[in-house]
Each structure stands twice: as C-alpha cells, then as structure tokens.
Specification:
The protein is of the alpha+beta class and 635 residues long. The chain contains 29 helices and 15 strands. Strands 7, 8, 9, 10, 11, 12, 13, 14 and 15 form a 9-stranded antiparallel β-sheet that branches. Strands 3-4-5-6 form a 4-stranded mixed β-sheet.
C-alpha cells in the first residue's frame, strides 16, 4: 500500500539491527534481562563495541558518549519514520475531506498542514527545503507537514551540500527563520528532519552528543535548542510572569534574534579537542561572515559565544562585595548591550542545562552582578567607602519602618566592621539588627530564621560567642537535617562574637515553612550549647551517575589580592555532608572561614572559601591542608 518505501524499509532494518545489537550486548553485560541503559553500564557496554577514533581506542568516557550518540541517532531515525508512517496510516484509515488553500508558488495548506504542490520540488529547487520551515516559523496556524511532504523532504535532505550551504538565497531564508515569530518550533522541526545538521555541519557533529559532566541532562543538540526556546520564551507576553526581568530586558533589546545565533553556537564545539568556547567562537564568526552580518552584530555574537560561561562563573565563584571584581567584569563586557545580551544568554543557558540546577539563589547572584555592572558602566565609581555609606543609610531607612529607637542600632553596629556591611544586603542588616540590638552581649546562642528574601529556602542567622568549632557544629546540624547550604557568610565582631548567615534549602520546605523555622531555631540552639557533642560524620552516598562518572577532585589554594587571606577552590562530586567534612579539616588546624561560595552543578560541587589563620602562612601547612582535603574527597 506504499505506507513505506523500499528506502525507508532498508533504513528501518538497519536501525533495528543497531538497536538489537545494543540490547543483546546490554543483556550479556548485565547478565539478566535489562532494557535500561543506566549510567553504570554504559562504559563497559561501550567498551564491548571497541569503538575506535583515528585508529586509537577511546578513553572510557569518550566511548560511552560515542555509544549513546550511536543510540540516539538510531532512535531519531525511528522517530522520524514513525511520524511519516502514522500520518500515512491515518490518511488511509480515516480519509478526510479537505480544502486546499495556496500558501505560495510551491506549497498549499491542507487543513492545518503544509503540502508540497510537487513531490519533486525539494530536489528540483533545493531552497524550498528552507522555505517550508520558514512557513512553519511565520504561521501559528500551521502544525506540521503532510505525510507526503514529510516523506519527500526526508528523502531530499541528502541533496544539501556545499553549494546549498554557500547559496546567498538560502542564507537569506535561514536568517528570516531566525527572525520569525515561531523560530524555536521551526528549528526543532529542522533538527528532527535532519535539515539543521546538514545546513550547519558543525551542528550535525553534535547531534546525539552526550555530556557526561554530571549536570547536563540533555544531548548537546537538544540543549542548544532548549536554550533558544528559553530565549524565545522571554519574548512572549504569555510568559512574562515567569521571568519578568528577562522579559523586560529582551523587549528593549534591538534584534533579539542575534541571541539565537549565539545560543546556536555556544556549545556547538562540545566533544572536540580543546576549549569549546574558543572553537565555537571560530564557528560563529565563520557563520556571521557567510551570512553577511554586520561587524557590530558579528562582534556581539562572537563575544557571547566566547564568554557564555563567564557571568555565571563570576557571580557564583567570586566575591561580588569586592568592587574590583565588578569593575573587572564591567571592563570585559564594555557596554550595556553586551551586558544585557550576556545576562539573557546566561539565564537561558543555565535553565536549559538541568531543571534542578537553576534556583532562586543563582538567579539573585546573577541579577546582582548585572545591576552592579550596570552602575559601573553608567559611570558610577564603586568603592568600599561609597558602598558602606549606601548600605548603612538603606538599612537605617528600613529600621525606621519598625519603630525602633533612633539610636537602637548603635549597640550592635559599633562592633561591626566594613566587611560585614559590604557582604550583607541592607535588608539582611536591618533584620539582624532588629533581632540582636537588645542582646549584643548575650551569653546564650541566638538562632533566628526567616523565609529567604529571594523567595526560596530559609535564611538562618547564628549569633553567639565565637569558639573554634562553631562553623563545624552548624554544618553538622545542617548535614544531619539534609539541608543544602547555598551560601555561608561568616563574620566575627570586634568583641568576639560570631555573626554567621546561611542560605539553606530542602525539598520539603515549601510544605511547612512555619514548623521548620521553629524546629531549626530550637534544635540548632541546642546543638550550639557548650559541651554539646559533635555528631559522627556520616559519609553521604554518591549517586549512580557520580559513581560511574566521578569527578577528579581538584584543590587550588592561593593568596587573595590583598595577601591577607587565602582563597580555597575545590571541585569534587557533591554528596550530603560534604561541607561538614571540609569544616572538620578546617577546624582541625584552627583555620578561620570568612565566606563560603557554594556552587552545585547537578552532582558536581565547585565551592570557593575565603580562609584566614596563622596555619596557612607556612607553605608546608598549605600542602598538608590540601592533602587532608583530598583524602576526604577520595574516602
């Protein structure tokens, strides 16, 4: 009945053999009936295929990525032919009366589908392979193509070669697709039909490319298309409530389709040898030159591809209270347009990596960096003195709203140095002052919690006499409760009190905040009582993915810019109780912790600590600290 052509049947047989081969090897490797390609079995399964690359054996991780790409390409073929077959079946089983409406010289509309007037049009006039997607990008009432048109396009896509890629007419059509109202849907269809990977050979190389880095959840091609979809979503009025600040910025951004081009190339070099940002930058520049983009637009796109990770890294790993950090970032972006473009791409990129990675705390850090950089670009001279005066005035204004006596804050503030005011928001300063101004010299630990001002999790403040193992006890409590610490700000007053602030989250917080706040305040206060026993460190269990693709632990300890403190950067697999284990090592050597920047990327921890203490001034002690931390990560 011509539901399948001979060529399609051959493709299906080939794909079936591929999937059967993988499945049989999976049963043999698992020694049971197992139909799930779980992480811990992908590497030995890939090694059984003996994949080669340039006549060399791949390392285990590369081999597993190659296997999964082998699988995804086969699965995509099944999905594409499945769409064609089902539409053909439906047309034969449930024939419908329809009215044909002309769309242009090559296509007409049948119900809600695009139909080619001539099945050979895609091979006779190859530019129509882009024209059909331009129609989908411009018309919301068109759902897809008829089975007849899908089949013709599927068989014709092999005609896309160098001449097609170099044709100026096709360049104009592709740019029109990027500028159309439904660009995200059109690009997704182009990828499913194999057109996008043919038109952009660099994109074709990452189709089905897995990323075993513990935080990317999607294949590279799907991640890129999701990032474009996220950017496009910012432009739609019906989604303004999701990210109003992003929607506001993109509404005033000239030629937002340039962001789609940057997103298309930001990870396009994944899987190649070398820095994917630099390699992708070269691909992006070549695309811009081929499509005759202006020098200004080319420079913006190339900048975004090269630095698409910079804003996230700066916000999450560096101390934003340091004006030098903000000035350095402002010198990199240079103007407001680049800053806005990088902010929008960063938000869309993180959201498109793994739904579990994006949270309110990351959102706040990146948005804070945006606003501070904008002030510098506007000519404001950020300085510690200026920030100190500004924070104090703003905090005092908030305190007046609560009817506190005019000089109530002085009892506490006289013991706080500039570091405290710079590292805390005015709302935090006002809240802590309200809680502590009448018990500045208390002998009992004070623990206060509130819903975090960022809208997610709890903010916990601890005020008590400073003792060597205080931070360790606090981390022990959070680890025992399975709380995830997003941020820690540790401060010691001039009269020997610790004033520490933590941002913590936990999955059940949203259901019973009031009970949890009371519980944390009571239990943590008890845990901080003198003589209270420290719990044993219970090593958190690594996930299946972390065990299969472990992160090689990395430690970097170096003096900060002032030379007074040391910056400790660690990279390792995340697990429950990790911060408690680190705190144990620091407490062992009486090392003071000033701030902790906690960044969790899926199941990969990248944390930065600002440390002080006499122990670190001896190079031999620095080596000892690094060795002990490595022992903790490897245990």
């Amino acid at each position: 009945r011509e539901l399948l052509t001979r060529t399609e049947a051959m493709q299906l047989r080939k794909t079936e053999r591929t999937l059967k081969n993988i499945r049989i090897r999976l049963h043999i490797q698992a020694q049971r009936a197992e139909d799930r390609l779980l992480f811990d079995i992908q590497i030995p399964l890939a090694q059984s295929f003996r994949f080669s690359k340039a006549k060399k054996r791949l390392d285990p991780r590369e081999a597993s990525e190659y296997l999964m790409r082998h699988y995804y390409l086969a699965a995509r073929t099944v999905r594409q032919l499945h769409t064609i077959l089902l539409q053909n079946l439906e047309a034969q089983l449930f024939p419908k009366t329809y009215e044909s409406k002309p769309l242009d010289a090559h296509f007409n509309q049948i119900n809600e589908f695009i139909n080619a007037t001539d099945e050979d049009i895609f091979t006779r006039q190859t530019s129509t392979m882009l024209e059909v997607f331009l129609l989908l990008a411009e018309r919301a009432d068109l759902k897809n193509m008829t089975a007849r048109t899908l089949r013709a396009l599927w068989h014709a896509h092999s005609h896309i070669g160098k001449d097609f890629i170099r044709d100026p007419e096709n360049h104009a059509l592709f740019l029109r697709i990027l500028q159309a109202p439904h660009v995200s849907r059109a690009l997704q269809y182009m990828n499913e039909m194999g057109i996008l990977g043919r038109y952009l050979p660099a994109f074709g190389r990452i189709i089905g490319q897995m990323q075993h880095d513990l935080f990317h959840q999607y294949t590279v091609d799907q991640h890129i298309l999701i990032v474009i979809a996220n950017l496009h979503r910012f432009t739609l009025a019906e989604y303004v409530h999701e990210y109003p600040f992003c929607s506001k910025l993109i509404a005033n951004f000239a030629r937002p389709w340039l962001l789609y081009v940057a997103a298309l190339f930001h990870d396009i070099a994944k899987g190649r040898d070398g820095d994917h940002s630099l390699l992708g930058m070269a691909d992006a520049r070549q695309f811009c030159q081929l499509h005759s983009l202006s020098d200004e637009d080319t420079a913006l796109i190339v900048f975004l591809v090269e630095h698409h990770l910079t804003m996230s890294s700066t916000a999450q790993k560096k101390d934003l209270s340091d004006p030098a950090v903000v000035r350095e970032f402002a010198a990199l972006v240079r103007d407001e347009r680049r800053l806005t473009a990088l902010y929008l791409l960063t938000v869309a990129d993180i959201r498109g990596t793994n739904p579990q990675i994006w949270n309110a705390w990351k959102s706040k850090l990146i948005e804070d960096l945006y606003h501070m950089t904008l002030r510098v670009l506007g000519g404001e001279n950020l300085s510690l003195d200026h920030e100190l005066v500004h924070r104090r005035q703003e905090a005092l204004a908030l305190l007046r709203l609560y009817g506190l006596p005019e000089a109530a804050h002085e009892a506490l503030w006289q013991h706080l140095d500039i570091g405290y005011f710079i590292r805390h928001d005015a709302s935090d300063i006002a809240w802590q002052t309200r809680m502590l101004y009448y018990r500045v010299n208390t002998m009992e630990p004070v623990v206060k919690c509130r819903l975090s001002p960022i809208g997610e999790g709890l903010q916990v403040t601890v005020y008590t006499k400073d003792v060597p193992d205080l931070f360790l006890r606090i981390c022990a409590y959070f680890a025992r409760r399975n709380f995830s610490i997003q941020d820690a700000r540790v401060h010691t007053t001039n009269h020997g009190y610790a004033l520490d602030t933590f941002q913590v989250t936990e999955q059940t917080f949203s259901r019973n905040y009031r009970d949890i706040i009371n519980l944390v305040e009571h239990n943590l206060t008890e845990a901080l009582q003198p003589g209270a026993p420290l719990p044993e460190l219970v090593k958190g269990r690594l996930s299946r993915k972390s065990r299969t693709f472990p992160v090689t632990p990395g430690i970097d300890l170096r003096p900060d810019a002032s030379g007074e403190h040391f910056v400790l950067s660690i990279v390792t697999n995340d697990r429950n109780g990790l911060l408690y284990a680190i705190a144990q090592v620091l407490a062992r050597y009486d090392i003071n912790l000033h701030t902790a920047k906690i960044m969790t990327l899926g199941e990969r921890a990248e944390d930065v600590f600002l440390l002080g203490g006499e122990f670190l001034k001896d190079p031999r002690n620095q080596i000892q600290l690094e060795t002990d931390l490595l022992d903790v990560f490897s245990a």
